[in-house]
């Protein structure tokens, strides 16, 4: 089998619970979503066709114990062979998924750290959230909400009242949005979430391979 891959590189995890952890990043090509604030549109098409063993070899060369499978949308491709190979060699896997693809399709998901988005209205993709995925998350996983405005905060508040999270949740302002006002709004009626910014963008800027 093969995968379509946009890039493989080493960097720091810039988001979520494992922010600051050195990781080998495998950015898969293709995504069924078109979020208004997407910062990786270059991964929607193109890429290079690689076998799972070629990806494994590239990951090995980067010298990290953690591997982040990201995109695009990694679950738009069949990752079962790759995750089994990585786990078999002792790598720890961090999977970043947009939340619109069935997590059950990944046989190894109980052994993988899942970082799943739930899309807010400003993304334009809130209708694509697959809430059934919440039932497959572990207490050690995480759910991320990228917020762009006060309507997004209201959406998150309402969603959490109907669907309590089985794991930690992260609130992340859209990069470039007024950070102070966004967090001030969030604190006026605090949510049971952690607050994070995109560390890698503050360190390296908004460019590929970081």
Which properties best describe this structure?
TIM Barrel, alpha/beta, 5 helices, 210 residues
Describe the protein's architecture and organization.
The protein is an alpha/beta fold and 210 residues long. The chain has a single domain, classed as Aldolase class I (TIM Barrel, Alpha-Beta Barrel). It has helices at 52-60, 80-88, 150-162, 179-188, 199-204, and strands at residues 2-12, 22-28, 48-51, 66-70, 92-97, 113-117, 142-147, 168-173, 194-195. Strands 3-1-2-4-5-6-7-8-9 form a nine-stranded mixed β-sheet. Helix 3 (150-162) links the parallel strand 7 (142-147) and strand 8 (168-173).
Helix content: 10-25%
The H-level CATH homologous superfamily, spelled out, is Aldolase class I
Summed over residues and divided by their number, the pLDDT gives a mean of 90
Number of beta-strand segments: 9
Terminal CA distance: 27 Å
Radius of gyration from the alpha-carbon trace, in angstroms: 16 Å
The SSE order reads: EEEHEHEEEHEHEH
CATH class: Alpha Beta
Strand content: 15-25%
Strand-pairing-aware structural class: alpha/beta
Please name the CATH architecture. Alpha-Beta Barrel
Number of helices: 5
**How many domains is the backbone divided into?**
1
Report the uncertain regions.
none
What is the overall silhouette? globular
- The third-level CATH topology is TIM Barrel
Strand order of the largest sheet: 3-1-2-4-5-6-7-8-9
């Amino acid at each position: 089998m093969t995968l379509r891959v946009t890039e493989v590189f080493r960097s720091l995890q810039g988001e979520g619970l494992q922010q600051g952890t050195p990781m080998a990043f495998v950015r898969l090509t293709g995504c069924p979503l078109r979020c208004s604030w997407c910062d990786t549109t270059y991964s929607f098409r193109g890429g290079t066709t690689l076998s799972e063993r070629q990806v494994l070899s590239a990951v090995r060369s980067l010298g990290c114990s953690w591997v982040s499978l990201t995109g695009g949308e990694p679950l738009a491709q069949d990752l079962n062979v790759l995750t089994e190979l990585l786990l078999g060699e002792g790598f720890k896997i961090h999977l970043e998924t947009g939340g619109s693809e069935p997590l059950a399709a990944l046989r190894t998901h109980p052994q993988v750290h899942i970082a799943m988005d739930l899309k807010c209205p400003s993304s334009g993709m809130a209708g694509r959230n697959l809430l059934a995925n919440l039932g497959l998350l572990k207490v050690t996983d995480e759910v991320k909400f990228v917020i762009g405005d006060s309507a997004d905060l209201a959406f998150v508040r309402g969603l959490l009242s109907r669907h309590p999270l089985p794991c930690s949740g992260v609130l992340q302002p859209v990069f470039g949005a007024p950070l102070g006002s966004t967090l001030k709004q969030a604190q006026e009626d605090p949510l049971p979430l952690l607050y994070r910014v995109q560390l890698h963008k503050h360190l390296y800027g908004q460019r590929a391979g970081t």
